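Example 9 (inverse folding). The structure is encoded as follows.
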């Protein structure tokens, strides 16, 4: 059966100015854009740490959007000896147990035993993440792009991802990676999902981000090929079409699968009750 052209998508791979020195966009701007486009949900996946997630959730509650708690976490092959591999992976909490699990992982990742240039978790810890968290393979810094397919970790990691993330950037490495993910998806029965890796609310904010990156003395080579500004669903579909790495059926279903993710994530309420510290082991 032919896949229908999607009429909406869930913006789940998203960075705001809480991804330090990597975005100039306040999270509220994205919420307002999604709301204006008739969207019903948004996620947050800052680099390394889910900074500001409570205030983001409160703002989403105020305007009536479902908020999905997430992070783009760093992975390392092993904790000792320390190597600066730091692969990317997107995690999204499906429910309250998932939120607690995600926060615990982030906390462990910042421990001295784990930290090396940035906070990370090991491949083993990633493989132990439960079904309460949706895992997608993220950007070009994914282990599925960086490791060779005959690396002993490759297949174990691959099978722990719920979705293989294709991105619409018109860049040779991204094109090659998308084609590989489409092949792996067929071979292993793991669905594709369309990640935008959005870092800016507009072209102007993307220019501002360019200045920030220069200040960090960071250059990503062909940065111009990576249009990481906010896209409507039609713009996103045209980007995939212009990129030409995937068949129409493949990218239609990858975009549609973002909606499947949000349907699988429960809305939650923040616990605002006053909490006192427990002293001397007393619960009274
Ligand atoms: Zn990334
Ligand atoms: Zn990202």
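The amino acid assigned to each position is listed next.
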């Amino acid at each position: 059966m032919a896949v229908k052209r999607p009429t909406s998508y869930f913006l789940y791979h998203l960075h705001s100015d809480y991804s330090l020195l990597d975005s100039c966009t306040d999270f509220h701007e994205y919420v307002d854009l999604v709301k204006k486009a008739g969207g019903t949900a948004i996620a947050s996946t800052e680099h390394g740490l889910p900074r500001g997630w409570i205030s983001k959730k409160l703002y989403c509650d105020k305007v009536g959007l479902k908020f999905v708690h997430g992070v783009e976490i760093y992975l390392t092959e092993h904790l000792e000896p320390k190597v600066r591999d730091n692969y990317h992976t997107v995690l999204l909490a499906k429910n309250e147990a998932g939120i607690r699990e995600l926060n615990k992982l982030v906390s462990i990742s910042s421990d001295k035993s784990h930290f090396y240039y940035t906070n990370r978790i090991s491949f083993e810890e990633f493989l132990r993440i439960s079904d309460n968290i949706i895992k997608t393979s993220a950007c070009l810094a994914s282990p599925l792009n960086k490791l060779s397919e005959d690396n002993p970790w490759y297949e174990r990691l691959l099978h722990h991802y719920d979705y293989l993330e294709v991105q619409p950037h018109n860049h040779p490495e991204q094109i090659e990676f998308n084609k590989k993910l489409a092949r792996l998806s067929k071979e292993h029965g793991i669905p594709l999902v369309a990640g935008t890796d959005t870092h800016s609310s507009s072209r102007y904010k993307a220019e501002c981000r360019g200045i920030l990156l220069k200040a960090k003395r960071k250059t990503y080579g062909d940065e111009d090929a990576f249009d990481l500004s906010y896209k409507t669903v039609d713009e996103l579909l045209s980007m995939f079409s212009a990129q030409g790495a995937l068949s129409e059926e493949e990218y239609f279903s990858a975009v549609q699968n973002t909606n499947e993710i949000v349907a699988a994530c429960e809305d939650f309420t923040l616990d605002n009750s006053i909490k006192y510290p427990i002293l001397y082991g007393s619960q009274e």
